[in-house]
């Protein structure tokens, strides 16, 4: 019966998130705000108590953050992660230390004890991985300079969770110095073993997938994606590491494989559901009555934290040589208190370091800062530009956008015989060509010709988006199945209305359908076959009757 109660609560929370998130989306706001409101009103202290399984839902919802990091890891292979450089990692470590120091000073100023002030600083130092990366991913800004900074800082903060949790335990007086050192050593050893294990498992998995006919067994990549993403999260948790960080490492190791695009698309629906549950569960942590009763204190703390974190990150990245625009945008994106404040606060309460009022204040400030982040993160590049113009530091987006990997010039969807013939003029022309194909034989052939190839089902819009086909100059669709080709064409026209599209039509009867759907050129198989047959028949007639003058191929047709 308990299982069905949890299921009912999940359905109620998702249904409310759908309605409230839809209302916010209708008015041009982030649906995340709606998810938080739905959770705050339905469950937790001071709510309608329509949902009573908040702890179980929160545990399930944490997997959404892990899958978000897993899909981002697929975007950032080991080679691409190296391109992030050391600045985001240095900036993240500096931000954590400096924020803890400033928050400690502020807490002491307002009368908190020494240990509780340190705990307060640790709780507010971390930003929200789920909020920031979800919005940046939706807006396609993860690869922009401020997006790469945010990713580096958030990864550093995820790493910092473990030592901060140990710090909370030590301040609570639990365990001797030798026990603490033993725990640290054991944790480092398990982390090293986990990374080695993930490297071996991903290599074996990629080799295994390479032997399967994925174009005929589409469910295999779905199962593989879920097992890998959630399995890495579980293994990391078992090793005492952040599950999200372990999932990111697993995704990053798979990111250099040809399967990355399709795995990312397959895991996306489950990720959306779990992340929606995460934000709903985050809303249930807050007590709206406590927030209203202590509104002036919460407002003051939120203003101080958001402003302080933004300034700290701005200054750190400016000192690291980043432009004013990028530094300010990074600071605005990360100027909130993250979900790990709940985890660290729970440890602090259990060990007696954090009082109930301090915990309630930090949780309330976190939730309110989530609301502000839903507006600040989308506006960060624009506000960064405004500050840059105001201060006279006018190095604009064009300079920074040039750092991104250039998009493909031409994309060919389907690389069977037709696609390979169509690609012949593109060989050794210096053009950036991307091939999207489910059959691994076609992918290997494309790579042999020097093209960039990805394994993916192009009928899924996520595959087209991740392959950046919306930025192409021309797209050739050679998929023989009429309905699949039509679905791909509609996705292309919706996301890239000005790209030149050439479509293969297996039957002449479908030509007008493709032209009506937005294709510029349609080449029919039947016409090509008919012309080829007429040509061969013409040659045969000549050889059979030397003095015979056969009609032209046009007459034969």
Automatic annotation (TrEMBL):
Its main location: membrane. The lineage of its organism: Bacteria, Pseudomonadati, Planctomycetota, Planctomycetia, Pirellulales. This is Glutathione-regulated potassium-efflux system protein KefC. The chain crosses the membrane at residues 6-25, 32-51, 57-77, 89-111, 117-137, 149-172, 184-206, 218-235, 241-260, 272-291, 297-319, 326-347, 359-377. It is a multi-pass membrane protein. Belongs to the monovalent cation:proton antiporter 2 (CPA2) transporter (TC 2.A.37) family. It holds the Pfam family TrkA_N. Keywords: Membrane, Transmembrane, Transmembrane helix, Transport. Residues 407-523 form the RCK N-terminal domain. It is found in: Membrane. The keyword Nucleotide-binding does not apply. InterPro entries: Cation/H_exchanger_TM, Na+/solute_symporter_sf, NAD(P)-bd_dom_sf, RCK_N. PROSITE patterns: RCK_N.
């Amino acid at each position: 019966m308990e299982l069905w109660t949890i299921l009912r609560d999940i359905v109620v929370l998702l249904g409310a998130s759908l309605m409230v998130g839809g209302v916010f989306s209708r008015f041009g706001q982030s649906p995340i705000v709606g998810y938080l409101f739905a959770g705050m009103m339905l469950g937790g202290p001071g709510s309608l108590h329509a949902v009573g399984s908040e702890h179980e839902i929160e545990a399930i919802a944490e997997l959404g953050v892990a899958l978000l990091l897993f899909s981002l890891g697929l975007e950032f292979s080991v080679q691409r992660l190296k391109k992030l450089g050391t600045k985001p990692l240095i900036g993240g470590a500096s931000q954590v230390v400096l924020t803890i120091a400033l928050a400690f000073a502020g807490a002491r100023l307002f009368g908190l004890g020494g240990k509780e002030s340190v705990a307060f600083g640790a709780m507010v130092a971390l930003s929200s991985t789920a909020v920031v990366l979800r919005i940046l991913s939706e807006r396609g800004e993860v690869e922009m300079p401020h997006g790469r900074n945010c990713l580096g800082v958030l990864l550093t903060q995820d790493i910092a969770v473990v030592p901060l949790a140990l710090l909370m335990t030590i301040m609570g007086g639990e365990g001797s110095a030798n026990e603490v050192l033993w725990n640290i050593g054991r944790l480092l050893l398990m982390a090293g073993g986990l990374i080695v294990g993930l490297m071996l498992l991903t290599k074996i998995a990629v080799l295994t997938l390479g032997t399967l006919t994925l174009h005929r067994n589409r469910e295999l990549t779905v199962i593989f994606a879920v097992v890998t993403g959630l399995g890495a999260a579980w293994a990391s948790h078992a090793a005492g590491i952040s599950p999200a960080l372990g999932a990111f490492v697993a995704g990053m190791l798979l990111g250099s494989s040809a399967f990355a695009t399709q795995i990312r698309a397959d895991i996306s629906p489950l990720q959306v559901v779990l992340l929606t549950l995460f934000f709903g569960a985050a809303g249930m942590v807050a007590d709206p009555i406590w927030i209203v009763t202590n509104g002036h204190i919460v407002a003051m703390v939120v203003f101080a934290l958001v402003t302080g974190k933004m300034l700290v990150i701005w200054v750190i990245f400016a000192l690291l040589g980043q432009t004013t625009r990028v530094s300010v945008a990074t600071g605005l994106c990360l100027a909130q208190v993250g979900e790990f404040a709940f985890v660290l606060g729970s440890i602090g309460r259990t060990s007696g370091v954090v009082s109930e009022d301090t915990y309630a204040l930090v949780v309330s400030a976190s939730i309110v800062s989530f609301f502000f982040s839903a507006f600040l993160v989308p506006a960060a590049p624009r506000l960064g530009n405004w500050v840059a113009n105001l201060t006279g530091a006018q190095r604009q987006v064009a300079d920074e956008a040039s750092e991104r990997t250039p998009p493909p010039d031409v994309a060919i969807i389907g690389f069977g015989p037709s696609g390979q013939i169509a690609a012949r003029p593109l060989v050794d022309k210096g053009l950036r060509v991307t091939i999207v194909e489910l059959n691994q034989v076609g992918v290997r052939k494309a790579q042999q010709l020097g093209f960039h190839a990805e394994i993916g089902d192009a009928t899924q819009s996520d595959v087209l988006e991740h392959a950046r086909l919306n930025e192409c100059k021309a797209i050739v669709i050679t998929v023989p199945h009429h309905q699949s080709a039509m679905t791909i064409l509609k996705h292309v026209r919706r996301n890239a209305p000005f790209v030149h599209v050439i479509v293969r039509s297996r039957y002449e009867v479908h030509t007008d359908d493709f032209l009506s759907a937005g294709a510029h050129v349609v080449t029919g198989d039947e016409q090509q076959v008919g012309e080829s047959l007429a040509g061969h028949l013409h040659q045969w007639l000549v050889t059979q009757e030397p003095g015979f003058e056969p009609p032209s191929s046009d007459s034969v047709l």
